[in-house]
Each structure stands twice: as structure tokens, then as C-alpha cells.
Specification:
Layout (H helix, E strand, L loop, with lengths): L4 E7 L4 H7 L1 H8 L3 E7 L6 H10 L3 H4 L15 H7 L4 E6 H7 L11 E2 L8 E5 L14 H15 L3 E6 L1 H9 L4 H23 L2 E6 L15 H4 E7 L5 E8 L3 H8 L25
């Protein structure tokens, strides 16, 4: 499968405003003309499982049916993972267990499904983690340094065609302290700092890197509703050229077709939003 390889970084609960304020590395790429940045509106409800499914199916929760974090069922096909696999490609993920549940196995077995190597499912190589028994004083989240290094190791060992990298720490910290807190802002900066180390490695390995979020976070430490702070998230395309900020807000449903278009794979008819970018930027896309 000789196609553009893609990494999608999903920083859980990263609101658009705090991203622009705290993600100094990612914003430096935009300023230097090496990345493009959109404001993106998440689906409703602005919860993790509905958004995870929408990011990869290109359909709304009302359509794909994953409307709550408490519905433990696999996402429908077609989705990004299934399309890549059907085309003969390999996929990988370093992510929280809900991703394993949606795209590899339901129900999730805390032992059996924690790691997958050369598996037959939609996620060929998986390194998953859980938030079991986390508390305010011990969020029980893997460090972003380890998450990024696990992703780099999967690239080094397996060269997946599509790789999902998911950090859930900002969501956990945001719930505990709220979006206006030092703790939340520092956690956002911390992941940006880790990406400053990891993204050049992934780019050197031939990957197109996209960075976004599932939803934002309120000052009260909540999300799920329609408040602007809960729904507005960033979307970066780190392309090495054609940088800048794009005016207006785009739909989260455009992420899945964008990934497939970048990879040169067919976009299923269920994914009705137009891709945001392709291998070459259209001349009409204004900054």
C-alpha cells in the first residue's frame, strides 16, 4: 500500500481558545507557514464516545447511534479504520479503551484487549489504556511523553498506514479543575511540548500529521452540551507548507473524509462532508 501515511493526534477536551493560547509549538508552525489551522465545531452531544465515532465515520451521533459514553458498542462501518484495512493497509492506535471498544472489540476486556499486535480487527496494532478508579488527586492517566513515544515505537516497528494518537489527560484534569484553571492550561501546554518532540520524528518518517480534539471543556469542568466552549475545537494540518489560519468554523464530520482523501482512499458515500484538504491544497482555499 504505497500511499500517504497519516497520524491523527486527538487531544481530548482541547478547547479552541485555550489551544490557541497555550499550544505554542503548534501555533509556531501556523505562524511559520508550515501548518494550517481551522476552528472546528464538534458534534452533539459534545461527549467523547459520540465524537470519537463521528471523527472516524464522518456521520453524526444521531446517525451512527453512539449518543452516550455509556453505550458500549462498536462503531458502524464504514469508518477510517475499516476503509484502510479493506484497502490492504495497516492501522494502529495509542488510545483510551473507548477507542478499542468502538473499533476493535466490544465489550472491552481489560486484559485481553489491552494490547493488539497484528490483530485481525480494524485496529491492527493497538496500545490501549484505561481510566479505571481515577480520582481528583490521582487521575491515573499515562504520561503524554509515554503516549507519544509509544506512537513513535509503533511507527518504528510496524509503519502503519494510519495511526491514532490519543491523550485523555486534559479531559481528566479539566473535569477535576475546570477550563479556567492553571492545571488545565498547563496540561494543554504539556502535550504541545511533547508534540514538539514527536511531530518532527513522525514527519521525517513520512507521515502527514493532523491534530484536533473531540470537544472542549467548560469553566465548571463539564462538557456534553451546546455551549461554545464545549463545542469549539481546533484542527491543525501540519503539511510543511500553505500555512495560516482559515476563517470560519468547519464541521467535525469533515475529519474522516479528509484523512481518507489524504491517503488516496475512496470516501464512502456516508461521509458527506467535503475534505478540508487533499494532498495538494486547492488554490481557492483562502487564508
Amino acid at each position: 500500500m504505497d500511499r500517504q501515511k497519516v497520524v491523527l493526534v486527538m487531544i481530548d477536551a482541547l478547547g479552541d481558545a485555550v489551544a490557541r493560547a497555550q499550544c505554542g509549538y503548534l501555533m509556531s508552525l501556523v505562524e511559520a507557514g508550515q501548518a494550517r489551522l481551522w476552528s472546528m465545531q464538534s458534534v452533539l452531544p459534545s461527549l467523547s464516545m459520540p465524537a470519537y465515532a463521528s471523527l472516524h465515520t464522518g456521520t453524526s451521533p444521531a446517525e451512527h447511534g453512539r449518543v452516550s459514553n455509556d453505550l458500549e458498542a462498536m462503531a458502524p462501518a464504514p469508518n477510517v479504520f475499516s476503509v484502510v484495512r479493506e484497502a490492504g493497509g495497516t492501522t494502529a492506535a495509542v488510545a483510551e479503551r473507548l477507542y478499542a471498544l468502538l473499533f476493535n472489540a466490544a465489550p472491552f476486556d481489560d486484559v485481553e484487549h489491552l494490547e493488539v499486535t497484528d490483530g485481525p480487527g480494524w485496529v491492527t496494532h493497538g496500545r490501549f489504556y484505561t481510566e479505571v478508579r481515577h480520582t481528583r488527586f490521582n487521575p491515573s492517566m499515562p504520561g503524554d511523553h509515554d503516549i507519544c513515544n509509544s506512537a513513535s515505537l509503533l511507527i518504528r516497528r510496524h509503519r502503519p498506514d494510519y495511526l491514532l494518537v490519543h491523550s485523555a489527560a486534559a479531559d481528566s484534569v479539566g473535569h477535576a479543575f475546570g477550563a479556567d484553571s492553571f492545571e488545565y492550561r498547563h496540561q494543554i501546554w504539556n502535550m504541545d511540548n511533547e508534540l514538539a518532540l514527536a511531530i518532527p520524528v513522525w514527519r521525517a518518517a513520512g507521515y502527514r500529521v493532523l491534530v484536533t480534539s473531540d470537544h472542549g471543556m467548560s469553566a465548571e469542568g463539564r462538557h456534553g452540551g451546546a455551549e461554545e466552549g464545549m463545542r469549539q475545537v481546533p484542527f491543525w494540518d501540519i503539511c510543511g507548507g500553505h500555512g495560516g489560519e482559515v476563517e470560519g468554523a468547519v464541521s467535525q464530520l469533515a475529519v474522516a473524509p479528509t484523512i481518507l482523501d489524504l491517503m488516496g482512499l475512496p470516501i464512502p458515500p456516508e461521509m458527506r462532508e467535503a475534505p478540508l484538504v487533499s494532498r495538494t491544497y486547492p488554490a481557492t482555499l483562502a487564508v
